[in-house]
Amino acid sequence: MHVKALGLAIALFIGTLPAMSQDVIKLWPDGAVPNAVANPNFPEKSEVGQQDGILRISHVSVPTLTVFQAPKDKATGAAVMICPGGGYGILAFGHEGEEVARWFNQQGITAFILKYRLPDERLMTNQSEVPLMDAMQGMKLIRQQAAKYGLDVTKIGVMGFSAGGHLAATLSTHYHRSAGSLKASEEAKPNFAILMYPVVTFGAKAHGGSRNNLLGKQNTSAELIAYYSNELQVTKQTPPTFLVHAQDDKAVPVENSIDYYLALLKNDVSGEMHLYPTGGHGFALRTKGKGSIENWPDACKGWLKAQGLMK
């Protein structure tokens, strides 16, 4: 089948699968979104790529959590907040959000897709701090609504893809620090993290687009680059982490995952890393025909069971 047709077929098939719940929770009360700049000339934009069938969202001004609740007969009480990737320029909300959420539901895990704001001076002030603010607030809201969704507050984690992996790693290593007007809170700490081909560093092996979109292209201080280079920010309090990366990833060098894993090891934090020779970038669950990387979901299930997150 032609690649374009295959991508569209996958998207259409996944879109027909039933979801147990799709509540949409606003992160912030109306009129109280921190750092927001009202700009009616830049409404939120959603489009599906003609070549790959990927749903892309941009110009986010109202960040939300979309809830995919696990079936009651499978539910383990665990939950994950999913951060789609897109280089801090768009959100790949379909294959790195909805498709993955449904996969977690099959494992008995409730999923919350984070539609976070993307750095843009037309829509916000102090852009670099905004995605982390949204991620911290999202994790706090999930904990606060745990009873409603039948969740165990000790089993709530975060997952991120590419730049969303950077956000998930930033949450894992910066939850105890204030982000803009949002104060640090233990409620923002994930109990576990899953990082898929993550952007980790803003140093020599950085994904330039993600770094430039978050921090700006010019006059970025060495201190700010180090602050958002998450391999430098791991501590003994960083949550247990599962990492997946392909060696032939041309967008985000595999060293991003390797260096984060080594930082976990140095700090005696439990980590599991799976590196595959082929797979490229942005594959999520679309791994058919890409070699042994097809096995990453099974490896992830094994890790989730070992963490006590699956039956």
UniProtKB/TrEMBL annotation:
Question: Which branch of life, at top level?
Answer: Bacteria
Q: Which residues form the signal peptide?
A: 1-21
Alphabetized InterPro entries for the sequence: AB_hydrolase_fold (IPR029058), BD-FAE-like_dom (IPR049492), GDXG_lipolytic_enzyme (IPR050300)
Which keywords label this protein? Hydrolase, Signal
Q: Recorded GO terms, molecular function?
A: hydrolase activity
Q: What range(s) does the BD-FAE-like domain occupy? A: 74-261
UniProt-listed Pfam families: BD-FAE
* SUPFAM superfamilies xrefs: alpha/beta-Hydrolases
- PANTHER family given in the database record: AB HYDROLASE SUPERFAMILY PROTEIN C4A8.06C, PEPTIDASE S9 PROLYL OLIGOPEPTIDASE CATALYTIC DOMAIN-CONTAINING PROTEIN
Q: What is this protein called?
A: Esterase
Give the organism, scientific name.
Arsenicibacter rosenii
What lineage, starting at the top, does this entry show?
Bacteria, Pseudomonadati, Bacteroidota, Cytophagia, Cytophagales
